[in-house]
Design a protein that fits this description.
With about 700 residues, this protein is mostly helical. Strands 2-1-3-4-5-6 form a six-stranded mixed sheet, with helices on one face. The longest helix is centred in the last third of the chain and has 17 residues. The relative contact order is 0.03.
Length: about 700
C-alpha cells in the first residue's frame, strides 16, 4: 500500500524577511531558537532566498524543527517534506517519528512502506522508529516483516533495534518471541529489561514481572523508573506487599522520593495491598500532586471500602483545583454507590456532562451501577441506553440492578435484548438473571435458566449459580425442595449456600431444616453473629423462647457480638449514620420526638408493632420501644425533618430489613405521602402508597 501525501503549498508566499547575521551553519538557530511556527517561517523564507534549503542537512534541521520541536505543526512539516526532491533516510526517520508522536502510527508504517518503494535504504535509526509505530497499533505482521529486514540489513546486533523489537513483540502479546530475543541477548541494558517489563505489565502478566525482576536483581542490573513502576504495578495486583516495600526502601535510599511518578506508583501499590494508611502518608508527603496521584489515593480508599474517606479526599481535590479524570470519576461513583450518596454521584454525572467527557464503557458502566445501587433505576436505564458502546459487564450491571430494585421481569427483558444484540452472557450475567427470577418469584423460569447455562451456553454452573437456585426455591417457600437440591449438588455446598437456606427457614418458620443449616455452617465456616441471630429468630417465630435465649447465651459464651444495625441517609451532601437506639447524633432529641409522632400516626393507620423483632433481652414493657428505635426508623424520621414535603427519602441499611420496619415503612409511605427507598443487605425496597416493590417477598 502506497502512502499518499497530501499537497500543501509552501508557506513562504508572504514577503520575505531578511535576517541579519544569518549563521553559516543554521542548525542551532533552527532547532533551538525557533519557538513558534511564525519564527520558523521567517527562517524558512531566508533559506529559500539564499538556496540554503537545498543543502540536505539544513533541510533536515528545518524538517526536525517543524515535525518534532513545535506543537501542532505536523502539516507544516509534511509540506516541507514533500518539497524535498529526494528525501534521504534521516528525513524519512523524522517524519516517521513525528507521525508516531502525534498519534498517527498507521501513517508512520505507510510512510516506511513508501520509503522502501522509493528504494531509500533504512539506517540504524529507521527500524526503531517504525517498530514503535507497530507496537502502538499491535501491527505484529508488519513488525515481523521489519524484523526480517533488520536481520538482512545487518542491524540485528544493534542493541537499540533489538530493544525495540522486544518491546514490539511484548506489547503485541508475542511473549515467547520477545522472551527468546531477550534471553539470547549477550548484553542486556536496563532498557532491555524495561522493554520486557513494560510488555508483561501492559498485558497483565504480573507474576512474570515479579519473576523477571528477581532475575534482574541476581544480575546486579541497576533499576530505572520504568522497571520500578512496572514492578510496583505488579506488586499491587498480586498483593505482594513485601516486594513493594523493598522497592520503597530502594527509592528512599537512592533519594528518588521527589519523583512524582514513582511516589504515585508506591501509593497505588500500598493501597491495592490493603495498606491504605501508608499510602495516605506518602500522599501527604508529596509536595506536588497531579490528577494521577489524587486518583490513585481516592481509588485506594474506594477499593478498601473506606468510601467516606474517598469522598472527603475528592472534596479536597476540588479545593486544590485539580481537575478529575475518568479514573477519579469511576472511583468516586463506586464510593457513592456503596454509601448510597445519590446527590454527590449526581453532581459527578453533571460534571461529566459539563466537561463533555467521553462516555466510555468503563465510565458509563460505573454510572449505571451507581444509579442502580442508589435505587434510582430509571436514571440507570437512561444512562445505559445513551452509552455508545456496551460490553458484557454493562449489560450484567443493568440486569442485576433491575433485579435488586424489584424489577425482575424487566431485567429478564433486557437479558433477551442482550442476546438479540449478539452479546454473549457470561457466568456473572447469569447470577443477575437468576437473581431477577428470585426477586420476582419466577420459580419455573429460574429452573429453566439454570439448566440452560450448561445446555445452551456451554458454561459450567458455579457455586454462586447453585446459591441462586437455593434462593429461588427457598424464597418461594419450597424449603424441602431447596434442601434436597443442596443434597444433590455435584460439588460440596459452601457456608453461603447453607446461610441462604437458613435465612429462608426464618421467614417460613422451618425449625428442623434451619437447625440442620446452622449445623452445616458451623462445620464449614467460622460462624458469624448473623447465623446465631437467624437461628434464634427461627425459634422466636414459633414461640420457642427458651431455645432462642439458649442460642443468644451461646453467642455470649463464645464472645460473638451481634453486628449492630446501621442506616445511612444523605442530606445536602452530608451522610448521616444511625444505629438502633442511637444517642450520638447531634439532633437525637429532636429525632426521637419526631419518631414517636411518626409511630403514633402510623398506628392510627393500622400499624401494629411486631415485638418479636425487639432485642431478646428487652423486658416486655420495653419491647415496643426497642423496635420503634431501629436505625432505619430513626433515619426516616430525620429525613422527614430535613426534606421538603413529598421528597423521596433514601436509606441504606447494612443488614436485612426486619419485618416490623418493613411493615412500618409501607404505612409511613402512605400516611406521609412519601416514596421511601431502602437498600438493605439483599435488595432494594421501594415503598410507595402503602406497598413495597418486593411484594413482601424478601
Amino acid at each position: 500500500m502506497t502512502f499518499t501525501l497530501p499537497t500543501f503549498p509552501a508557506k513562504t508566499t508572504t514577503a520575505l524577511t531578511t535576517i541579519p547575521h544569518f549563521p553559516e551553519n543554521p542548525k542551532t538557530l533552527i532547532l533551538q531558537q525557533c519557538r513558534t511556527i511564525k519564527e520558523l517561517n521567517q527562517v524558512h523564507a531566508h533559506l529559500i532566498k539564499t538556496s540554503l534549503h537545498l543543502i540536505p542537512s539544513v533541510a533536515e534541521n528545518l524538517l526536525e524543527s517543524a515535525a518534532l520541536n513545535l506543537p501542532q505543526s505536523t502539516d507544516y512539516a509534511l509540506s516541507i517534506f514533500t518539497h524535498i526532491d529526494e528525501p534521504n533516510s534521516p528525513a524519512y526517520n523524522i517524519m516517521i517519528r513525528a507521525f508516531t508522536l502525534n498519534q498517527s502510527p498507521h501513517d508512520s508504517i505507510l510512510l516506511f512502506k513508501q520509503m522502501l518503494e522509493k528504494s531509500v535504504e533504512p539506517d540504524q535509526f529507521t527500524f526503531p522508529c517504525v517498530l514503535k509505530a507497530c507496537s502502538r497499533v499491535q501491527a505484529v505482521k508488519e513488525g515481523e516483516q521489519i524484523h526480517c529486514q533488520i536481520v538482512k540489513s545487518g542491524f540485528y546486533l544493534n542493541g537499540f533495534a533489538e530493544n525495540t523489537l522486544i518491546n514490539m513483540y511484548a506489547n503485541c502479546g508475542k511473549f515467547e518471541i520477545a522472551r527468546s530475543l531477550f534471553d539470547n541477548m549477550s548484553e542486556k541494558t536496563v532498557v532491555t529489561w524495561s522493554s520486557m517489563f513494560s510488555g508483561y505489565t501492559k498485558c497483565g502478566y504480573f507474576e512474570e514481572v515479579v519473576k523477571l525482576f528477581r532475575k534482574m536483581m541476581e544480575s546486579n542490573v541497576k533499576f530505572n523508573e520504568i522497571t520500578m513502576v512496572s514492578v510496583l504495578t505488579a506488586c499491587g495486583r498480586l498483593g505482594d506487599w513485601e516486594l513493594g516495600k523493598y522497592i520503597h526502601e530502594y527509592i528512599t535510599e537512592n533519594e528518588l522520593t521527589k519523583n512524582p511518578t514513582l511516589m504515585t506508583s508506591l501509593i497505588d501499590m500500598y493501597a491495592k495491598c490493603g495498606d491504605v494508611d501508608m499510602a495516605r502518608r506518602l500522599f501527604n508527603q508529596m509536595t506536588q500532586r497531579d490528577v494521577v496521584a489524587w486518583s490513585a489515593m481516592i481509588s485506594g480508599y474506594s477499593q478498601s471500602n473506606r468510601c467516606r474517606e474517598a469522598l472527603d479526599l475528592f472534596t479536597k481535590m476540588q479545593e486544590a483545583n485539580v481537575e478529575p479524570n475518568e479514573v477519579t470519576m469511576v472511583s468516586v461513583l463506586a464510593s457513592c454507590a456503596v454509601l448510597g450518596a445519590l446527590e454527590t454521584g449526581k453532581w459527578v454525572h453533571f460534571y461529566i456532562k459539563k466537561k463533555k467527557l467521553k462516555l466510555t464503557v468503563t465510565l458509563g458502566t460505573a454510572l449505571v451501577d451507581f444509579y442502580s445501587k442508589c435505587g434510582s433505576i430509571e436514571n440507570s436505564v437512561e444512562v445505559f441506553i445513551k452509552m455508545p458502546f456496551k460490553n458484557v459487564l454493562s449489560w450484567t450491571v443493568l440486569i442485576q440492578g433491575l433485579a435488586n430494585n424489584g424489577q425482575g421481569k424487566r431485567a429478564l427483558e433486557f437479558f433477551n435484548f442482550m442476546s438479540e444484540n449478539g452479546m454473549k452472557p457470561n457466568d456473572v450475567t447469569f447470577i443477575g438473571v437468576l437473581s431477577a427470577c428470585s426477586h420476582a418469584g419466577l420459580v419455573d423460569l429460574g429452573r429453566d435458566i439454570f439448566k440452560s447455562i450448561s445446555r445452551d451456553y456451554d458454561l459450567e454452573p458455579k457455586m454462586e449459580h447453585y446459591g441462586c437456585m437455593v434462593d429461588i426455591l427457598s424464597r418461594a417457600g419450597l424449603i424441602k425442595e431447596a434442601y434436597q437440591f443442596i443434597q444433590n449438588m455435584p460439588t460440596k455446598p459452601n457456608a453461603v449456600i447453607w446461610r441462604t437456606l437458613l435465612a429462608s427457614c426464618k421467614v417460613h418458620k422451618s425449625v428442623e431444616i434451619g437447625e440442620e443449616s446452622f449445623k452445616q455452617i458451623c462445620i464449614l465456616d467460622t460462624t458469624h453473629s448473623g447465623d446465631y441471630i437467624l437461628l434464634s429468630n427461627i425459634y422466636v417465630s414459633v414461640g420457642k423462647w427458651e431455645e432462642a435465649l439458649r442460642v443468644r447465651n451461646l453467642m455470649k459464651e463464645k464472645g460473638i457480638k451481634k453486628t449492630p444495625g446501621c442506616s445511612l441517609i444523605e442530606l445536602d451532601g452530608e451522610i448521616h449514620e444511625f444505629f438502633a437506639e442511637d444517642n450520638k447524633h447531634r439532633h437525637i432529641k429532636m429525632i426521637y420526638n419526631v419518631t414517636e409522632k411518626m409511630i403514633k400516626k402510623i398506628k392510627l393507620a393500622g400499624y401494629v408493632p411486631n415485638t418479636e423483632e425487639a432485642r431478646i433481652d428487652a423486658g416486655e414493657d420495653d419491647k415496643e420501644t426497642s423496635v420503634s428505635h431501629h436505625s432505619e426508623k430513626l433515619a426516616i424520621a430525620f429525613g422527614l425533618i430535613r426534606t421538603s414535603k413529598g421528597a423521596t427519602i433514601r436509606i441504606t441499611k447494612n443488614l436485612r430489613v426486619c419485618n416490623d420496619c418493613h411493615d412500618a415503612m409501607k404505612i409511613t409511605s402512605k400516611v406521609f405521602e412519601r416514596e421511601i427507598v431502602v437498600r438493605d443487605r439483599n435488595r432494594f425496597h421501594h415503598f410507595k402508597e402503602g406497598s413495597c416493590s418486593c411484594n413482601d417477598y424478601w
